[in-house]
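step: validate -> pass
step: tokenize input -> pass
step: predict -> running
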Amino acid sequence: MIYFDNSATTRPYPEVLDAFVKTSENYFANPSSLHSLGARTEKLLTQARRQIASLLGADENEIFFTSGGTEGNNLAIKGTALEYRSRGRHIITTAVEHASVFETCRQLEEWGFRVTYLPVDKSGRIKLDDLKQAITDETILVSVMHVNNEVGTVQPVEEIGQLLKTYPKILFHTDDVQGCGKVPLSLHDAGIDLCTVSAHKCHGLKGTGILYKRANLRLSPLLTGGHQERGLRSGTENTGGIVAAGKALRLIHEKFEAGAAERTARIRDALIEKLQEMPAVTVHTNPAVSAPHILNFSVRGIRGEVLVHALEEEGTYISTTSACSSKTRELSRTLLAMGVSEDEAEWAVRVSLSYENTMEEAERFIRILRQTITNLQQVLGRNQ
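step: predict -> pass
step: emit ->
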């Protein structure tokens, strides 16, 4: 099996699964309970929060646990909009955000907020001048993702943060679900107020997310009830998933420090080189401004979902665009914003690597892809 769909989800590390099982067996009590079992669990939860904060370069009181990236993005954006609407009702984001940001902004428009969707260039990057021109006296939030989930483009988050430091009333949120552990980001140096992370994109477990919220920043909670997470996110904490998330983040950061991102970039670059030799293939990812693990390409005349299923029959797993939106059958909003034609957007697929993938797998993938394209072209040619 060749699993090249790691931006959809990653295989949990064995150590992560072990941490989840041991925590669930030995620390099963509700951390809000007053008895000693609850106190033990709460202490472990605090230790996990402290570890995760250290790995993200934050203070432990700035870390809040959610169910994943989607909830984190909703909480960051809606929580800001509702809390600071007396300051203004204007939000700035981009045309290429993940659906959990884009659709949240659409909903806020229905609630009376005004949203500016910044355009991108052919590589998928915004221009700082466009952002600066979009800012008004009513602007309360800028939300720009760190790494695009479909093509891998890295946005100039640090530069955006420096620009926004001259606008102290504007909060800055970044979705770092695809960048965490792969592309370095200093939350404090970049002036980020809110940052979203998801454990299962870092070899953790599904159902656990992390929201960084700068100290002294207020958000309006979306979930109310038992006042967990200091009143910001009610609901019994997923202690096993949180401890496992801490383990996953530690492991992926250790691999990054050992040079795993550079090795992954070499695999991606080798794939791009071979793909560009194929006459029917167009590569949409610009490696000069992209994360090391994602690449997007189209095969002329072959719909993305057809290629995905044909490769699946060969034990090779990739995706169309974003796995979260793949069943909607809509063309990629990201690719269209980059100026890719509707046909090429319909033909597009995504390869996303993990630190566990190898060059040998990449070479096998290219051989399988070549043969699969030839077979599909023959079949499609006969059916036309």
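step: describe -> The mean pLDDT is 96.
step: cleanup -> pass
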